[in-house]
Design goal:
The protein has 29 helices and 31 strands. With 800 residues, the chain is an alpha+beta fold.
Length: 800
Amino acid sequence: MSSKIPCSHCHLEFDSCIMIEEGELHFCCNGCQGVYHLLQDKGLDSFYEKSKNVILAPPLENYADSSNFDSPSFYDKFVKVNSEGFNEVSLIIEGIHCSACVWLNEKALSKMDGVIEANINFTNNKATIVWADDVVKLSKIIDMIRAIGYNAFAYDAMTQEEYVNKERKAYYLKMAVAIFASMNIMWIAVAQYAGYFSGITQDVKTILNIAEWILSTPVLFYSGWVFFRGAYYGLRAKIVNMDLLVATGALLTYIYSIYITIMQRGEAYFDSVSMIITFVLIGKFLEVLSKKSAADSLDMIIKNIPSEVRVLKNGVITECKLDDARVGDIVVVSSGEKVLLDGEILKGSGSFDESSLTGESNPVYKNIGMSVVSGTTSIDADVHFMATKDFKHSTLSNIVSLLESAINKKPKIQQMANRLSEYFSSVILLLALVTFLGWWQWPNSFETSFMVAVSVIVIACPCALALATPVATLVGLSISASRGILFKEAAGLETMATIDTLVLDKTGTITVGKPEVVREHIYKEFDRNLIYSMVKPSKHPISWGVAEYIKGQNQNVGEIIFDEYVQIPAKGIKAKYDNKIILGGNLKFINEHGIDVDFALEETAFYFVVDNELAAIYELKDRIKEGIEELIANMQQKRIEVVLLSGDHENITKSIARQVGIKTFLYEQTPQDKAEYIKTIHDKGKKAVMVGDGVNDILALASADIAIAMGSGSDIAVEVGDVVLLDDSLRSLNDAFKISQTTFGLIKQNLLISLVYNAITIPLAMAGYVIPLVAAISMSLSSLLVVGNSMRIRYKWRNR
C-alpha cells in the first residue's frame, strides 16, 4: 500500500506511486516541478520557507493565450504611460493566499529585465506593474505570473464594485439572521435566568436549552463564519487576531452548552454564544460599510465625462466617440457644453468657465488662436477648435490618472482597538490554557477545569474592546447626519480628531461662489423691467447676481420683449427697445460704444446705459459664508493651522484671507499645485484636512488624510470626499471637528473601560470565583457600559 507524501512545491499530499521523484524531491505534476526549478534558478527558493505551512494550488496549463495582453485594444483600455515614459497597468492576481504569495510575485516580477516596479495590495490582490515596453512585453510578465503558479487579469472597477456590493449584501443577511435569533434567544434566556433564582425543573430547562441550541447554531456557523474564516487565515499567517478569540470563545461555549444540555446538569450558555457573535458582528459590519473603493471615485469621474464629441469632417458635423477623436480633428462646441479635448480655436469666440480646473471664479474670454482646455465649460461660446491632444493625453484624462495615483497612495488608518486586541487575544488564550492546566492538576476535574477556562475566555471576550470604536463612531455618525454632515468612513471621525492642518479652498468653500450686488449707484431714473429683462436670459454669473438683486428690490418686476437682443461674449449685452439703445456690461464694453466713464471701481462692476447715458452701476462681490469667524477661532484654540489655497488672483485671495483672519494663503493654485501642497504637509509629518467643492480640488481632496466636500459642489468632488457637508455651512464644518474630537475622546474612554474591566474580572475568573453564567452576564454588562458611555455624546449635542 503506497503512502501519501507532500509535493515539494504545492505541499498537497498524493500517493507516492503517482509522484514525480527527483532525488529527495517529490512533485505531483510537471507544472509544480517546473515552478520549483524556476524559483531555484531565480534565487527565490526562500519562498518555501515563508510558505511552508500554506497549501498552494498546482499551476494550471489551460490558460488563454497571453498574447492577448499585447493587443492594441487591451493597451488602449487598460495600459497607460506614466510621466517617465514607462507603461503601467493594474492587474488582479488570482491564487494569492498569504503574504508569502505576495512576496513571491513581487520578487519574481522585479527580477525580470524591463520591469521597473511591481507592487501588490494583499487586501484585494491588486497589482500595479510598471515596465519598459521596449525591453519586455506585457505577455511575458503574464507568463511569469502563470509560471510561478498564479494567474492575472485586468483590473476592472465595475467588477470590483460588484464584489463589494455582494459582500455587503452577505453581511446584511448575516446580520438579519444573528439579530433575529438573538432576540428570540434572549426571550428564552429571560425564563432561564428567572428560573435560576426562583426555581425550574430540569425537564423544562432542557427544553429551553434545546430551543436555544437550535437558534444559536445558525448564528454561530452562518453569521459567525466570518470569524472562523478570519481566525483560519490569521493562524495560517501566524497571527493571533481577535477573530480567533471570538471564534474560540463562542465555539467552546457552544460545545460546553451542548454537553450540559445532553447531560442535563448545570447551566447552558447558548445565549452567550449568540450575543458574542452578534455584538462583534456589528463591528465587522461597520467595517464593511466604511470601506470606500478608489474605483468608486474614478467611476464617478468617468461617468461625468460624455462619451461622444461633435467633429467637423468634409463640411459635415458628425458624432464621434471620444476615444476615436484624433489630433488634428476639428471639434465643435456650443454654449453650455463641456470641452473634452485640448485644442486651439479656429473659429468663433466667447467666455469659458475654467473654475473647475483653475479655481478662477471669473469667466475667461477666448477667441481665434487661443487654446481651450479639456474639463472647462463654454458659457456663451460657439467655437470650432483643432484638437492638439487626444483624450488619453488630455488635461482631463491626466487629472483622472493623477487622482487614481493619489487615492492609491492614501494613508491607511489603523484602528486603536485592533492594535490592542492583537496582543490581547494572544494573552487571553494563553491565560485560558494556563488556567485549564492549573485547575486540571487540582482538583483534577476536567469538567471544573473546562468550565473555569471557558469562564476566562467568555468574561474576557473582547466585545467591549471591539465595540469601543464602532459604537462611539456610530453615535457620532448619527449626530453628524442629523446636522447635515455625512461621514463616508467611520474611521474619518477618529482621523479628523487628530489632524493639525486645515486646508480651505476659497470659491464655494469660504465664499458662496455667487457674485452678489453690494452697492447700487443710480445716475438716472429708468424702468427696472429693462435691466431685469436684459440680464435674466444670460448665463453669466454677474448677470445672475444683478438679476437676483433687481428681483429682490422690485418684487413686481417682469420681463419684456426687446426689439433686438445680442450677447457679446466676455463683454456685455446690447438691446433695443422702443427705439432706445440699451447697453449692459463691463467698463471696456461701454467705452467701446462711446460712453465716457472717467472712473473705475475696484470691485467687479456691471454698467447699465440707456440711450447713451449712464443710468446705473452695480458693484458685485462674492459673499463670505457665515460661521468663518467661529471656525477660525476654534482652529486657533485647538492649535490647528489654517491654510487658504485659491486659484484666484493675489489681490482677491489676499483680501479674503485678511477679512477672515487666515495668515497663510497661496494664490493662482492649479489642481496639481494644491495636491503638491498637501504632499509637503505630509512630508513634514503632519496630517491635513482638505475642504473643497469643485473638480479643481479633487487631486488635493484625494491626497489629504480627510477630504471634506461641499454638498452643492461637483458630483466628482462629493464622491471623492470622505465627508460631505449637505448644507455647505462652515458652521457644519466646525461641528464636524467638534463631533470628531468628542467621539475620539469617547473611544479612548471606552478602551480604558474595557481594559480596566478585564484587569479586574480576568483574575477573578482564573481564580474560579466566576462561573460561565456570571461571566456571560458581566461580559454583556461591560458591553452595555461601553454603549452607555458612547451615548453620552447624543445627550451632549441634543441641546446644541
